Every structure is written in structure tokens, then in C-alpha cells.
């Protein structure tokens, strides 16, 4: 029986030791005073007996016979009530090993005492034995007493709690809870033991001490504002240009011309074709326009064109001149006249697009020694005959007749076959049968080629073209510029006057630039020289008509078995009567279809 009782007692003891019985919890309050660890009201609730306090039935907390009003574990202080009669020795005895230090100033019979861990060890010595080390956890720090051995436990900066309590210890302080600790109303972010501040949007800096306005807060909105107004401006410009193009198209007769067989180009197409009118594509420059080479890509392949673009002159004058030139070239369709390839009506002044003539101007071939095409007398005569055919067509077959007004070697182009093409109708005029003579408001033309009668009277006629053609004949024969001078017997004589006198004196062979291979050729060259002299007569009425000049040159060509001049063109068939040619009398029949835009080949 005793054995059973002993075993039962042993089992109950083991059960209690294993936690089978509920331990009574530690009370942490005595009346209104909180009792934090390491202090306690029971031996198992305090760090040691040195921190054991007594709570009386009247809820008074005593340390010995000293009443405790408050315990602060953060600052390691204790507020105590002093007895009516007391001295420091009594206080020291009351707190024994907690090593209290009496504050020299006391009021209302109370005193502030400092307490700590009185183990006669420094912090470094205490840390060496973690089992007895009073500071709980990694978020605490240890501080030595100033003059005595022992230490305090504190929570690290940014942490709060009881640094002696190993269960809870020191926990992180959330500094970002209200109120916001960040200046400038920045964004607070909690970090272990501390916090960071981010400057508000539009500012920059370290957040905790300074936030300055960011340059991006000015730059970015400025960029957006500029981009917005740029986009709006671009849209307005686009709409304005579109309406302007539509207005120009209607004002330039686009509604009428688009129903005819003339190709109409957009402004963008011509800009692309000429690489935005790059100087490397410039072919030449006239009185009020420059000509640019361009390439248009089409279904049938690439087409090389020549675009005539106006200069920056008075807009009303340019508009009048270009519309006038458009009216002229729309009337012409001849193999020896540069053809109109198309027009652009979107610009304020229409742009004229001509066929591209690849071998430059007659002027270049005459006055550049590198040219070989004019070394042949037959080539020179053929080119002269082709120019004459073009002028004959304009004077006799065009309806109404056309005065070119600026015939010169610069305005005669040579194509890939070195056939002549008359170009540049900027100064041309249309004349009616009842007004064969036109009074010019201003003299237009090129020095050396202008009809002297036109210069003195201001009246331009088809005979003015005859005179200019005579100058070109002299230029072909002598390879001299019409403004050049010949020095004879110490006197300078203009080449035109000298040539006329040399033909009359039968000494013209001294002035020609090539030698004939036979007497027959020399005779024919003399006939061409005489034609030139007749064309250069000072009196326009005595000059031959271009029809007569063309017939004579054609006869000379035929007699020399040279290249046959083709007299049929796309609108006009000028037939040469072979029987009349043999008798030096050629009649030209112009079979003319209805002229104007309706018969345009484009």
C-alpha cells in the first residue's frame, strides 16, 4: 500500500512538472501601478529576488517599506514616495542590489531613483554569458553605468517595448503612423528600426530634410504643352495647306483640265521626283523660273521629267506668266517642240512639267569644244532646218499663230537623237489674224537675239522670231556668240554686222567654223549664209517668212541627200510637194485638227 501511494505521488509530481497543471499567471499590476519585468510580485515572476516587490491588501506597491508610484523600464527609473523621516541610507537599504541613486532634488515627498542590473559586470562582460544576460533579443542595446559596475538595457533606436522581456522584447516602431513624420508631406515608408521619406511628385531630394522642385516638373509639362501645340499647329497647317491646294486647283482651272487628257501631278509627287528641288537636279534658269530634273515612278517604268518652278517674284506676275505659258504650250504639238508632259495645279502658280531632253542645249554644243555633233556641216544644217520647221508650225499652223519671242541657242534643246526641240514659251504671245502685230508693255528677250525693230517700236511680230532665227544661223555657222566682236583694222565690229558684210563681200568663208569637202557643199553653205542675212534685215517687212526659210533649208537638205526633215507631227501634217522642191518652190499644207485642250495628246 505504501508503494502504491509513493508511485501515485511520484506520478502527480511528474505530471505537474510536465505542465499538466495550470500555473498561476504572473500579475503585472498593483492597484494603479504597472509592474513590468524584471520586477515581479512573485519570485517566479521577477528576474531575481532583488526585483521582487510587495503588493499590499490596500493595493500599495512597496519595495521594502518604500512606496513605489511608477516604474519605467525604458529609462530605468522609479518614482517612489519618501517617508516623513528618511535618509539616503534608508533608501539604499530598501533597494539593496538594485543600486538606486537618489535624485538630489525631490518635491512633494517623492524621489526619482535610477535602477539597473547590479551584477558588478560591464556590458561586454555580461554579453559573454548569454544565459544570465539581462537584455532580451537583438533589438536591444546595453549601456554601462557611469561610475559603477552594472548596466542598463535599452531598446535600440526605432524600437519600443520592454528590453528585459524575452517573450515580447523590443519591437519595431512604425514611424509612418499619423502624424506623418516626413516634411513637405512626403511619402513615408517604414523600415526596421527606422523609416524613409520619398519626396512628393514633382520634387526631388533626400526626403527627410529637403525636397526641391524637380526640373522635370517644369520640363515634362512644357514638353507636353509644346507637343500639344505643335500637333495642333501641324494639324492646322495641314488643313490650311489642303484647303489652299484645293483652292489653287479650282482657281487654276483644275475642274476643267482634269477631264482632258493632260496629266495632273500633285505637289507632293513633284517634290519627291526632284528630291525637294535639290540644286543637283537644276537644269537651268530662265527669266522667272528654274527647271529641275525629276523622276516619276509609274506602272510603265520610270519617266524622266523637267519641272519648271517659278522664282520668288511678284506672285501676280508669275501667275499671269505661267498661265500664259500654259495656254501657249497647250496649243502646240510638234515633234521639234518640247512637249508638255503634265501640270501641277495645287500651287498658287501652276508648275509645268515637260518632257526631259537629255542632250542639253544647242548653246552648250556650239560653244563647248567637247561637243562633236556639230563638227559635221550636215548636222548643223539639219538642226537649223528642224528649228525652222518648229517656227513655221507656230507661225503658220498653230491656231491662233504663236510668236515665240525668245528664240536663242539656249532655248534649243537636243534630244537623245540630237534632234532640235524648241523650248521656253515664257515670253510667247498668241496673235489673232486681225492683230498680227502686238505692242509689248515691256521689252522681253535676250541681248544679241532681239529684233532691233522690236527694240525701237515695242511692236513684236512673227518676223521678230525670223530675226532671232537668223542670229542662231550665224551662231551655227561661225560658232561665235552674238554679242562677241571681231577686230579688223583696229576697229571692233559686232559678229552679226561683220557676218552680214562678209556675205555681201563674198568673204564669208573666212568666218565659218568648218571647211566644206566639196564645191557643192561650199555652195550650199553660201546659200544658208544668204538665208541668214535675209533673216537679219533691219526692216522686218523685208525678212522672209519662216515657211519660206523652212522650204529653202529643206530643199538644200534634199539636194545634199542629207537627213530627211519629217514634217508630220501629232496634230499637223505639213506635206512637202516633191515636184515643187525640184523647182525650188515648196508649198506647205497644214492639216490642222481642232486645237486647244480638247486635242491635247496628254
TrEMBL record:
ATP binds at residue 309. Residues 277-556 form the Protein kinase domain. One of its GO terms (molecular function) is ATP binding. Pfam families: EGF_CA, GUB_WAK_bind, PK_Tyr_Ser-Thr. It is a single-pass type I membrane protein. It is found in: Membrane. This is Uncharacterized protein. Residues 546-573 form a coiled coil. Residues 1-21 form the signal peptide. It comes from Eucalyptus globulus. SUPFAM superfamilies: Growth factor receptor domain (SSF57184), Protein kinase-like (PK-like) (SSF56112). Residues 172-212 form the EGF-like domain. The lineage of its organism: Eukaryota, Viridiplantae, Streptophyta, Embryophyta, Tracheophyta. The chain crosses the membrane at residues 216-240. Its main location: membrane.
Amino acid at each position: 500500500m505504501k508503494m502504491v501511494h509513493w508511485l501515485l505521488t511520484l506520478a502527480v509530481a511528474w505530471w505537474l512538472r510536465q505542465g499538466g497543471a495550470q500555473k498561476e499567471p504572473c500579475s503585472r499590476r498593483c492597484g494603479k501601478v504597472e509592474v513590468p519585468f524584471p520586477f515581479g510580485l512573485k519570485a517566479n515572476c521577477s528576474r531575481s529576488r532583488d526585483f521582487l516587490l510587495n503588493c499590499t491588501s490596500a493595493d500599495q506597491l512597496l519595495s521594502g517599506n518604500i512606496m513605489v508610484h511608477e516604474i519605467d523600464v525604458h529609462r530605468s527609473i522609479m518614482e517612489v514616495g519618501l517617508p516623513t523621516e528618511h535618509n539616503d541610507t534608508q533608501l539604499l537599504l530598501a533597494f539593496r542590489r538594485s543600486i538606486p541613486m537618489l535624485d538630489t532634488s525631490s518635491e512633494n515627498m517623492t524621489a526619482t531613483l535610477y535602477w539597473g542590473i547590479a551584477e558588478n559586470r560591464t556590458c561586454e562582460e555580461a554579453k559573454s554569458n548569454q544565459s544570465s544576460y539581462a537584455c532580451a533579443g537583438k533589438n536591444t542595446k546595453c549601456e554601462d553605468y557611469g561610475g559603477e559596475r552594472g548596466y542598463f538595457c535599452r531598446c535600440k533606436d526605432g524600437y519600443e517595448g520592454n528590453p528585459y522581456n524575452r517573450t515580447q522584447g523590443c519591437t519595431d516602431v512604425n514611424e509612418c503612423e499619423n502624424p506623418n513624420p516626413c516634411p513637405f508631406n512626403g511619402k513615408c515608408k517604414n523600415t526596421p528600426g527606422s523609416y524613409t521619406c520619398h519626396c512628393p511628385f514633382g520634387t526631388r531630394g533626400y526626403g527627410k530634410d529637403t525636397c526641391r522642385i524637380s526640373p522635370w516638373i517644369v520640363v515634362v509639362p512644357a514638353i507636353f504643352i509644346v507637343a500639344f501645340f505643335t500637333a495642333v499647329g501641324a494639324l492646322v497647317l495641314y488643313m490650311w495647306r489642303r484647303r489652299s491646294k484645293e483652292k489653287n486647283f479650282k482657281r487654276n482651272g483644275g475642274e476643267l483640265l482634269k477631264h482632258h487628257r493632260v496629266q495632273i501631278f500633285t505637289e507632293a509627287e513633284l517634290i519627291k521626283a526632284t528630291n525637294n528641288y535639290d540644286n543637283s537636279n537644276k537644269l537651268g534658269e530662265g527669266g522667272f523660273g528654274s527647271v529641275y530634273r525629276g523622276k516619276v515612278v509609274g506602272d510603265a517604268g520610270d519617266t524622266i521629267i523637267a519641272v519648271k518652278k517659278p522664282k520668288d517674284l511678284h506672285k501676280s506676275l508669275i501667275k499671269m506668266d505661267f498661265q500664259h505659258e500654259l495656254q501657249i504650250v497647250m496649243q502646240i504639238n510638234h515633234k521639234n517642240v518640247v512637249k508638255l508632259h503634265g501640270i501641277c495645279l495645287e500651287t498658287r502658280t501652276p508648275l509645268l512639267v515637260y518632257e526631259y531632253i537629255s542632250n542639253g542645249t544647242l548653246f552648250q554644243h556650239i560653244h563647248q569644244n567637247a561637243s562633236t555633233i556639230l563638227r559635221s556641216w550636215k548636222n548643223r544644217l539639219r538642226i537649223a532646218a528642224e528649228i525652222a520647221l518648229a517656227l513655221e508650225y507656230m507661225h503658220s499652223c498653230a491656231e491662233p499663230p504663236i510668236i515665240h519671242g525668245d528664240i536663242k541657242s539656249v532655248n534649243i534643246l537636243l534630244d537623245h537623237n540630237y534632234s532640235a526641240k524648241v523650248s521656253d514659251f515664257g515670253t510667247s504671245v498668241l496673235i489673232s489674224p486681225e492683230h498680227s502685230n502686238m505692242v509689248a508693255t515691256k521689252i522681253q528677250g535676250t541681248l544679241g537675239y532681239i529684233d532691233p525693230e522690236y527694240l525701237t517700236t515695242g511692236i513684236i511680230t512673227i518676223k521678230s522670231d525670223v530675226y532671232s532665227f537668223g542670229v542662231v544661223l550665224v551662231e551655227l555657222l561661225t560658232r561665235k556668240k552674238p554679242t562677241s566682236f571681231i577686230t579688223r583694222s583696229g576697229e571692233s565690229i559686232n559678229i552679226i554686222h561683220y557676218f552680214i558684210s562678209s556675205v555681201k563681200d563674198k568673204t564669208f568663208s573666212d568666218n565659218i567654223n568648218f571647211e566644206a569637202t566639196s564645191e557643192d557643199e561650199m555652195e550650199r553653205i553660201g546659200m544658208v549664209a544668204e538665208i541668214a542675212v535675209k533673216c537679219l534685215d533691219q526692216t522686218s517687212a523685208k525678212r522672209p517668212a519662216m515657211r519660206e526659210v523652212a522650204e529653202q533649208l529643206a530643199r538644200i537638205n534634199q539636194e545634199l541627200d542629207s537627213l530627211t526633215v519629217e514634217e508630220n507631227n501629232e496634230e499637223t501634217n505639213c506635206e512637202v510637194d516633191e515636184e515643187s522642191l525640184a523647182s525650188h518652190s515648196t508649198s506647205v499644207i497644214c492639216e490642222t485638227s481642232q486645237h486647244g485642250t480638247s486635242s491635247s495628246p496628254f
